[in-house]
Amino acid sequence: MYNFDVEKPGTIAEAAAAMGADEAQALGGGQTLIPTLKQRLASPSKLVSLKGVAEMQGMGKDGNTLRIGGATTHATVAADGSYPALSALASHIGDPAVRNRGTIGGSLANNDPAACYPAAALASGATIVTNTRQISADDYFQGMFDTALEEGEIITAVSFPIPQAANYQKFVQPASRFALVGVFVAKYADGVRVAVTGASNEGVFRWTEAEAALSTNFSASALDGLTVDPDNMITDLHGAAAYRAHLVKVMTGRAVTAAG
Amino acid sequence: MPKDTGIGAATVRREDVRFLTGTGEYTDDITLAKQTYAVFARSTVAHGTIKSIDTSAAEAMPGVLAVFTGEDFADVGGNPAGWLINSRDGEPMKEPKRPVLAHGKVRHVGDAYAAVIAETVQQARDAVEAIEVDIEELDAIVDMNAALSGSNFVHDEIGTNQCFDWGWIEDNREATDNAIKNAHHVTTLELVNNRLVPNAMEPRASIGSYKASTGEYTLHTTSQNPHLTRLLISAFVLGIPENMLTVIAPDVGGGFGSKIYHYGEEALVLAAAKRLNRPVKWTADRTESFLTDAHGRDHVTKIELALDKDGKFLAFRTDTKANVGAYLSNFSTATPTFLHGTLMAGNYTVPLVYVNVKAVFTNTAPVDAYRGAGRPEATYSIERVIDKAARELGMDPIELRRKNFVKPNQYPFASAAGLEYDAGNYDALMDKMEEVADVAGFAARRAESEKNGKLRGFGVNAYIEACGIAPSNLVGVLGSRVGLYDAATVRVNATGNLSVMVGAHSHGQGHETAFPQVVAEMLGIDPAVIDIVHGDTSKIPFGMGTYGSRSLAVCGSAVVRATEKIINKAKKIAGHMLEASEHDITLADGVFSVAGTDKSVTFGEVALKAYIPHEYPLEDIEPGLEETAFYDPANFTYPSGAYACEVEVDPETGKVTVDRMTAVDDFGNVINPMIVTGQVQGGLAQGIGQALLENTSYDENGQLLSASYMDYTMPRADDLPMFAVDHSQGTPCTHNPLGVKGCGEAGAIGSPPTVVNAVIDALQSGGKNVTHIDMPVSPARVWEAMQ
Ligand SMILES: Cc1cc2nc3c(=O)[nH]c(=O)nc-3n(C[C@H](O)[C@H](O)[C@H](O)COP(=O)(O)OP(=O)(O)OC[C@H]3O[C@@H](n4cnc5c(N)ncnc54)[C@H](O)[C@@H]3O)c2cc1C
Asked: Which pTM value belongs to this model?
C-alpha cells in the first residue's frame, strides 16, 4: 500500500464534498479496493468511507419497489425476504467475510464482468440512484469495469421493481467463485428480462432473443431453438467462448425452471 | 481393544493445542533486536538480458540501509542440484549455476535481480520501485518441444535446453521395444501430469543474523530440512563454516516439498546481516510464493502397455519430458528419474520396463519434488494406461489388475524397474477396497444418478510407492550427492523426563505426538514426560529432514536405536543398583527387575542414579544417560494401496462431483492411526485438487496466468466428499525395527488416476467415446471432450 488519508463522513452531502478532493476515492466494503491497494495497483490520496453514512444503509419496500441503500452489505440483502431471488444471489457472493463487508454500491460501481449484482440490476430494470441523479440499469452498465458514473459520483441507493418470478443461476468459476456464467431471469407483467454476467467481453448484457421467447412462453423449452453467439464471449483459463455461450443457454433454462 | 497410549494408540496431537490457539511460533512471528527488512526486486519478464541496474536512487531513499544486486554475489558459489544424473550416452547432466541473485540474465517471472534492506518493509518496497533496471526482453522459452528444438537457450553457456536424456533401464531398451512390437495388444496413451503450485499456508520467510563478536551466523527459516540448508550454504553457496552457522526452522506452516530446498533469499539475508551487522528479515507475499516456490510435477508423457491375449502385461514403455524450469532446484533431477522411473513397474509382475526422461529447461519457475515426487507421475501414467487397456480389451479393470499383481508368495520381489519390494499383499488391499467402497452397490447408485440426469462413473487404482528414502549406499550408486540416513539423540534428564532430538522436521506430520509414543512404548513410561526437539541444528546431532514419507521409517528407526542404547545402559545401572547381572535385568512398565525375584528399581530411580553417581561403578559405566544413533535403512519401504472413486458428471455443464472416495492403504505397522488417517485425508484432498482443480498455466510469454487464488483453484471442503480411509491390511516392512512404511504422500499418489478413471467411466456410460482428458479435469474440458 501507499499512504493515503481516510475520511468518514456521516451524510451524503459530506461524502460528496469529501469526494471533491483530488484523487479521492469512495470506500465501500473494501473487498475489491483494499486488495488492489495492498498490491500497490492504485494510489488514491484519500479514501472516503461510506460506512458511516446512515442514509445509505439498509433496505425498505415501497409498494412493489425495493430500495437498497448504496452502503448496504451483501449479508443484509441476503437476510431480507422482500425479493427472494435477489437475497439468494447475495447469499452466494464470496464468503461470510466478503458478505459482511462488501456492499451493493461497491459491487455496482466496480462492475466486474463476473460479478453477480450487475445481472440482477439489469434483469430487474433497476434504477441506480446517485448523489446527483437517477440512472436506469440499461444506461448504467457500459462494459467491463465501466459505468455511467462520473468522477466522484456516489451510488446512494438502488431501486429494484420486484418481479412476479425470478431466479439467478450462477455457474461458478472454480477458483474465484465469481460467475463463470451467471444468468438472472426476472418475469414482470410486461415481459421477461434476462441478464447475463461472466460471459461477455463487454460485461453484463441482456439476452434479448431469450427475453422475447420467454415473454410468450415462460418455460425452459421456449429456449430450444435459440443459440448464443460465442463471438465476443470471454476465453480464459476456465473456459473458452463456445463453452460460455453454451452455459448461457443452460443456465437460462435452469433459471426459468427454478423461477417456476 | 484399541490402546490408549504407546504404539497403535490414536493419541490426540499435542502440537495442535498451540496451532489451534494461534500460539505457534513461525519465522515471521520472530522479531530480533534491531531487525531490518529485505524486499526483492523481481523480474516481470520471463527471459531477458540485464543491461544495467542503477540502484543510486533507491540507496538514497529514506530508511534504506543497503541494496544488493547479482554483482555482489558473482564470486560466491551456486545452489547445487543434489543428484547427478547421467544421460543415456554417459554424459553428465548440464548444471548451469543457480546464483543467489540473477546476474547477466533473468530467467523466469519472479527471478530476483536485486534486494533492498531498509528499516521497514514499507521503505524497502518503496526503494525497490526506485531501482532503475534495463532488461532487454528475449523470447520466452515455455513449451518443452520448442525448447528442445530451438536455438534460444535459458542458459546460453550450456548451449542446449536439455538437462539430460535419461534411460531406465537402458539395458532393457531393446527387449522392451521388441516386446511392444510383437505383442498381441498395445495400448497407448499420451498425457500431461499438470504443474502444481505448492501453496503452503505459510509463505516462505527467513531471518539472517550475525554476531560480530564470535563470527556466528543464525538463519531462522521456513525449512523442512534445516541441516541440509546449513550444508548447502556452508559447502556450496556462502562458505560459512558449518560450526559457525545455526539453522533454525521453528514452526513451519506446511511445505509439501517446497520447503525442502535451499533458496537464494536465505543466502541473501545472511550475507546482508553480516554486512549491516543487524538481523535481516524477509517474508514472501503470496504472489512471490506463486512465482518463486518450487512448483511440482509438469511431465508430458507417452506411455505404452503391451499385453498378451490373456491380459498379462508384457512391457511398459514411457517417453517423458520433464520440465525443470529455469534453474535446477536441489532435488529436481532426482524427482523425474529415480523417484519416477524406478516405480514404473507398479504393483505388477510385468517383466520389462523402459523409461526415457528428457529434462528440459524453460523460462518458468523451478520444478522440484512436491508431495509424492515422481511416484504420482509414475502411478498416474501406469494406472491410466491400464484402465484404457481394460476398456480396449473389454476386461474388468479390477480383474485386469489382479491378474498382473505380484502375489504374497513372491516376496522379496525384484521389480522390472530395478527395486526389491520387501512385503505387500495387493489382492488383500483390493478385496478390502471392494468391501469398503461397496462396489456391489455401484449399479444401483448409477441408476439413481441417471434418473437425475447425471452420469456416474467408477474408477479404481492400485499404487505402490517407495518411501523411507533411502539406503545411502544404493542412492550413492544412483547419483545422489548426499547420504539419506537420519539421526536421533535420546536424553534422559536426572529427574526422569526425556528430550528426544530428532533430525526429521515436523511441519504438520505430528512427530511431537507420534515419536513419544514409540519411546514411551519401549521404556514403559508415560509419553507426557517425553518431549521432541526438532528444527534447530545447534540442538540436534544431524538430520536429512522430512520428505518422501521418511520421518518415521528412517528417523523413527534412529529413535528406536538410540532408545535401545538407553535401555542397555539403564540395565547396567539397574543391575549395579540391584546387585545383579545386567543380563538378568528385565524392563517392563517402566520398572527394571531382576528376573525371578521381587527386586526392582524404577526408570526414574535409574535416571537419577546416572546423574548422581554416588556408589556408582565409574570404572565400568559412565555417568549420564544420553545416547545418539544414526540409522541408514537397508532398502526403501513400499507402501501400497487400492483406491476407488465415484463421480457424478453433469452432462450439460461438464461439472464433475466427487461423490465417494475410498483409500485402502498398506502402511505396515501404524503408530498413531488418527494421524495416519489425517495424512491420507490431506493427500486425497491434494490429489483431487490436482485431478480436478489445480491448473498452473503460463502464457507464451512466460507470464503465470494462474498467479493468485482468483485463478488458481485450491481444493476446498465443499469440493470433497467424506473419505473412507482404511489401513487395516498392513504388511509390516521387513527391514526397519518398527515395521513401518510411511503414509504422508499416499493420498496424493493414489487419487489422481482414480478420479480421472472414474470420469472416463462416467462419460463412457453416457455413450461418449472419450478415452482421456488431461488434468485438471475442469468442467470446460469435460464439456469440450463430450462435443
Ligand atoms: C473472496 C471474494 C469473493 C467474491 N465473490 C464475489 C462473487 O461471487 N460475486 C460478486 O458479485 N462479487 C464477489 N466479490 C466482490 C464483492 O462483492 C465486493 O464486495 C464488491 O465487488 C465490491 O464491493 P465493496 O463494497 O467491497 O467495494 P470496495 O472494494 O470498497 O470498492 C470497489 C469500487 O467501488 C467504488 N465504490 C464503493 N462504493 C461506492 C459507492 N457507493 N458509490 C460509488 N463508488 C463506490 C470504490 O471506489 C472502488 O472503486 C468477491 C470478493 C472477494 C474478496
From this structure: 0.97
